[in-house]
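Entry type: protein chain
Record version: 2
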Amino acid sequence: MEEKIFIKTCNRCKQDKDSTEFYKQKLTKDGLKCWCKECTREYNALYSPSNTGDRVRKKPVYNYIKTLKYNYGLSPTDYSDKLKRQKQKCAVCGEDKGNRRFCVDHNHETGQTRGILCSKCNHLVGAVENKNHESACKYIKKWNLAETYIKLTG
């Protein structure tokens, strides 16, 4: 049986293409997927498990790249350049995170990025920036004094 060739618009790239440029899918009215083969391959390259057999999906990396650009105006190259200048370590404590991601430190009023920090230092800088540091220092001192008192009276 000969297949009818017709023009179909890809829902992803919005281009009109021959029906031969779409994978088959029995459950749809026209018997074809809604994305063209090229868009499907691009998507699978980003979201499918890696060829090494591990089940880690690439989606979080793709989302993080979008977040860097949208929230901080950084390209992946800008981010890696900042991290290289910091010798792959947190700008505050100097901790090496290994494979884990760092946070982008930025001024919440101006939006300007300052550096790349580990999550602990990012929270600390945020607390200091919000002027919560005095009450936090009092809290820590209170507990250190209490522990010292317990040891002495113990």
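Comment: The chain has two domains: 7-47, 59-129.
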